Amino acid sequence: MAVKRDKRDLAKFLQCSSILEEKVAAAYESFAERAQNPSIKPLLLFISYDSLKHSRILKMLGELIAETTVTTDECETMLGKAWMKSIFQAQKEAMKKETTEDNELASLIDEMINFESFLGEEYLTILHLKTMQLIAMDPRIDQPNLKRILVWIVEDEERHELILTRIRALTTTPKEE
User: Fold this and answer.
1) pTM of the predicted model, to two decimals?
2) Residue 99's CB: how many other CB atoms inside 10 A?
3) CATH second-level architecture of 2-170?
C-alpha cells in the first residue's frame, strides 16, 4: 500500500511542478511582450516556450505514474511557501501590461536567475531521486527514457540561467549615444 501512496504523491509533485512551469511560461511571455529591447524578446520567448514544454511533459509524466488530481493547497503543502510565492509572483507578472524598461527588467532578472537555479535543483534532487526509486517498481514506465527527460529538463533550466545572465548583461550595458 505504501508504494501506491508514494506513486500518488510523486504524481502530485509532478502535477504541481507542471502548474508552476505553466505560470512561469506565462510570466516569461509577458516579459517578452513588454520588453522594450528587441534583442531581449526572443530570448525571453525561448525560456517561455521551454517552460511550457516542461509543464506539459511533467503533467504527462505525472499522469503516467498515477491517476490523481492536485489542489493548490496540496501543492503548497508538498512544495512549501516558496512554491506558492513563485506561483503568485508569476501570475502577477503575467498580468502586467505596461512596457518594461531595461533597468526594470534588469532588477527582475536576478530574481529569475535564482528561480531558474531553484527549479533545476528541485528537478535534479527531488524528481530525479524519488522518481527513479518508484519507477523501478513499475514495469509500465520506461526508466531510462524518463531519466533522460528529467536530465533534459534540468539542462534546460541551466540554459535558462545562462540566457538570463545574457539578458542582464544586455539590460545593464550602457547604451551608446
Assistant:
1) 0.79
2) 10
3) Up-down Bundle (1.20)
